Amino acid sequence: MSTAATTTYSPSPAKKQQTIFKDLDWVRSDGRGFQQCRPAFLRTGATSAASGSAYAEFGNTKVIVSVFGPRESKKAMMYSDIGRLNCNISYTTFSTSIRVQGSDNKEFSAMLHKALEGAIILESFPKTTVDVFALVLESGGSDLPVIISCASLALADAGIMMYDIVSSVSVTCIGKNLIIDPTSEEEDHRDGSFLISCMPSRNEVTQLTLTGEWTTAKVHEAMELCIDACSKLGDIMRSCLKETASTLQ
Amino acid sequence: MAEKATEKTGMEGEMEVDAYRRLFPLPFYERHLLDSLRPDGRPLSRSRDTSLSLGAVSSADGSALVKFGDTTMLAAIKLEVMTPSKESPDEGCLGIEFHMPPICSPIVRPGKPAEIAPVISKQLEDAILSSGLINLKELSLISGKAAWMTYVDIYCLNADGSLFDAALFAAVAAFSHLQIPLVSLSEGGRVITVSGENLDNPAKELVNKDKRNLTLHSIPFSLTCVLHKNYILADPTAEEESIMETLLTVVLDSSSQLISLYKPGGSVLAFKTTVQDCISHTRKRVKELQKILSEALSDMEID
Amino acid sequence: MEVDRIDGRTPNQLRPLACSRNVLHRAHGSARWSQGDSTSYKTAIVNTKERNTIILAAVYGPKAGTRKGENPEKASIEVVWKPRTGQSGKSEKECELILRRTLQSICLLTVHPNTTTSVIVQLLPCAINASCAALVDAGFPLKHLAVAVGCGLSEGGSVILDPSKAEEELKFQAYTHLVFLNSSLSVLPEGLPHVEGKPVEDGIITSVTHGAMSVNDYLCCMERAQAASAKISEFLRRSLQSQLPSDPAKAL
Amino acid sequence: MAIETGEETLVTPGEVLGDSSDLIAGRGAYVAHHNGKIYSSLTGRCSIVPPLPGSSDQKPKVEIVGHKAHGAVPEPGSVVIARVTKVMAKMVSADIMCVGPKAVKEKFTGIIRQQDVRASEIDKVDMYLSFHPGDIVRAVVLSLGDARAYYLSTAKNELGVVSAQSIAGATMVPISWTEMQCPLTGQIEQRKVAKVN
Which residues of B touch A90 (CB under 8 A)? Predict the structure, then answer.
């Protein structure tokens, strides 16, 4: 088996530049309205080896997050009076339509850290570390917001003290339209994107990223769309946590 | 070792059972073994509840999700096109990789991969090739020009012992779920998939009209046992593997051929009778796994 | 069915064994183990290189345990498998694990807790015999000696012991590597170690197989290899007795 | 939406439990400084505990009970059970396995310094005659320690070695506060023995 030397390619035809997105009225491939999120399936406690875990499925985006700790910080770290948060995101080799070498996503890992850090009561576990590890089983678009929401659920499942849960939603701008919770195909054709992570009950934003060209009016519109969706997603997350908690008793 | 600690140490009163189990794992287990019952309530030779669901990954050509108790494996197969080697122009290739991402166990951390993962990859590769599960000739598309490179990636999502057994079952189940995409040859000489509306009226002739599934010859199944004194514990959990270190893995195929008998050291010696007992436990397990696989396949046909 | 072996041996015949210790000066213990000898079979067809298995094993330690895998109650053993060329990959990792677990089972690990001993091996199977001799050379406390035997199963179903590299490349249906304890000697005849009434040398420490075979074939290999292990075991003992560690400072 | 006394509802992190002017935030609850409201920080049942008769603050306390708490973590003052890993001239290091009666999920590293082994004649302590690798020790957490380890102390009668193996591999029996005996060989070994109640 000499797999290393052989070069291979995926037989799936190269994506054609789809023109429909340029029209003002086009139909999303899954039939959703522009301001409609994919149905969310959430479950906690999938990984027994971890302190807490959660699985999230939004359409074809499937993510598992495990939380370990609070546990001993790595030897090389300095003493700290408050706890530490450590995040890592990796993708499976089959997460996308073309096979990739499964690897860590450093940029997303840093963004996940920023989105969660403000919501965790780090003083409640001095000196120790909480590890949040995510594995993207399938990448179907809006990966980062799904990971962030799923990670917050896993942290709650692990019993880590938090000011509030964190829900996260993104909006993509294609031409004149704002599309919420975009799929990968929609993301590929974006002119700009907007991601918000917030603590719905406290009405506070932990992270906001904006890329591409936006007018002020569009930003306001996107912000409202996202905040509203985050609060709805927050309710779904709470009912998931309560469901697990009630079955435990 | 701490065998004598079974005597009352005077500490048990003040701590929870879990704490005693953590501090004195071997005496804790030996007490259970005396009653021929494991802490999770299983008799020694019983495997954990096993489940299988096929087609869990929509971005793959074949996939399977397997659970042995809490041990969870997700196997997915993706087919890509390769140019066959000159020595074997009519053969495709298999690439098997076992992954233990940091989510699966507290001992794996990013940048610090599990030591066991490449060893299990190698064992899986050996078992699948030795059993002759796949005829590599069936992976040929155009002799000397194009063949399928079959990437089998198995991810451990939750590690709780018997990783090789669960990974092998996930891999063979993913093979039986594999649907080869229909392909044709483009002008540039590349093999491309034909799907959707193009299927009824393909612009080019299909290369592989009647080869959508692979013929699986003899399917390998395995059972790992932990040996401790005279006890044989089938399908051990991670805790059992770490406390009683002697492991023996038997791989048998569907026609009861021995594909592998793997015992990497350990303080307990395997006598002929032990070997025979482990093989007969494996025979029973093969029947169970065969049944689970065929039920999952027939459920899929109904859908 | 009898099969003709390319080097003219009978199926049960082992290649000549040779073992020399203290071959590396900087290591705490070392051994060179070979199976097959360039002078004994001068058959023109086969390149002698292919019929010989030569392994070099070096032992460093016990060193103060600062490495990972350090254990407060036991000594740790680490195995580094050096491939002849290139980087170490999956197969080397597998060999390291098998060898480490095998050596752990014969070493008296309670004598030097919190230490690490490294065994560095270069080249091919049967490394167990070499490592074992190297550990003895290093003066490491052992419970037993281990003896490894390779066993090939020809297409016709007959068992061939100690196949050479050239034979391995020819058609073998399957082959097996088995490791046993060396046969025991005791001053008192009743003092021979037994487990449940069975002599310990009947039990296998390690088993690794390649290729498909029937269960009976495996059990047959096990029996034949066990018988052969007695010969290697005797050789090992003789060889160790004749070469006591040359440097007394090395003895722990 | 203040919660009535005695009523128990399921809450999740971030849910408002009441106002800090009427309630005290107990376990699993916190006061947000920007609006003075009390929020939950854990998932579980919310319960209101009436004030103790004699206490100065007569507000009831709100806390989260029955939640899935994270694994045990050592804190200053907690009694832990640890396994000795290394004995050195000035200190021993030990893996903390239990905090109180609970087993930890993953071990934490602790050290017992020479001055923290016993209460009297602390400069005469010989670490090698007090602990051996593998001993199970009951100790109290002195402080969070340094970057590497928690600082532990056995300087009390009921603290010290609670279980140890002799060289012959048997569990030894304590015979005095400095000695333990092997039941197989009768050999006596020295330890800082914990007094069994």
Answer: 101-102, 110
For the whole model, what pTM was predicted? 0.89
Instruction: Name the residue type at position D17.
Output: L
Residue with tokens 């800082």: D192
What is each CA distance from B277 to B46, B227, C38, C68, C206, in whole angstroms? 13, 11, 43, 36, 17
Q: How many CB atoms lie within 10 A of CB B293?
A: 22
Which B residues, 259 through 288, put their C-beta within 8 Å of a C-beta on chain C?
259-267, 269-272, 274-276, 279
How close B4 gets to chain C, by Cα (Å)?
A: 16
- Taking alpha carbons only, the member of C40, C32, C33, C31 closest to residue C9 is C40
Q: Report whether pLDDT(A109) > 60.
A: yes
Residue at token pair 């929020």: D39
**Are B23 and D170 an interchain contact pair (Cβ–Cβ within 8 Å)?**
no
CA angle B180, B97, B221 (to 5 degrees): 75
C111 at interface of D, judged by CB pairs closer than 8 A: no
Contact D18, D38 (CB under 8 A): yes
Interface check for A246 against chain B (CB to CB < 8 A): the answer is: no
Q: In this predicted structure, what is the pLDDT of residue B12?
A: 52
Kindly tell me if the per-residue pLDDT of C32 is higher than 50. Answer: yes
The DSSP secondary-structure symbol of D95 reads E
Q: Is the pLDDT of residue A226 over 90?
A: yes
Tokens of B70: 């809490």
Interface check for D92 against chain C (CB to CB < 8 A): the answer is no
Q: Hey, CA dihedral for A25, A30, A33, A38, is it positive or negative? A: negative
DSSP D29-65: EEE-TTT-EEEE-SSEEEEEEPPPTT-S--S-EEEEE
Find, in chain B, the residue whose alpha carbon is nearest to that of C110. Answer: B1
Cβ separation D169–B16 shorter than 8 A: no
pLDDT at residue C208 in the model: 86
How far apart CA A99 and CA C164 sit, in angstroms, is: 41
Which is nearest to C124 in space by CA: C168, C155, C154, C160?
C168
Residue B41 DSSP one-character state: S
Asked if ipTM goes beyond 0.90, one says no
Q: Could you report the per-residue pLDDT of D51-102, keeping only the tens digit for each?
A: 877 777 778 999 988 667 778 899 999 999 999 998 999 999 999 999 988 8
Q: How far apart are CA C233 and CA C223, in angstroms?
A: 15
Half-sphere exposure for A38 (CA within 13 Å, toward CB): 26
pLDDT in the model for residue A175: 86
pLDDT at residue C38, rounded to an integer: 44
